[in-house]
Prior knowledge:
This protein has 70 residues and is mainly β. It has no helices and 6 strands. It has strands at residues 6-9, 17-22, 28-34, 39-42, 49-57, 62-69. The strands form 2 sheets. Strands 3-2-5-6 form a 4-stranded antiparallel beta sheet, with no helix packed on it. It has a two-stranded antiparallel ribbon with strand order 1-4. The chain is globular, with a radius of gyration of 12 Å.
Amino acid sequence: PSTGNFTLSTHSLKGSGTIKIFDTNGQVVYHRSFEASGNIVVTGLQSGGVYFVELKNKEGVSKYCKLIIQ
Length: 70
């Protein structure tokens, strides 16, 4: 579980892309582009609950994970 601030690694995705975080209703609550593989610091998800993270590069390769905020 997280308290709302966390780091995501984009090393498994080559190149630039986007990160989207969805709530359980499917609404996008966070959206950001990234330019290269590395780490992304996400802050500001203060509402507790379950979220779903989508990392997608420009070639269309996607990675998904579940995030729990306390």
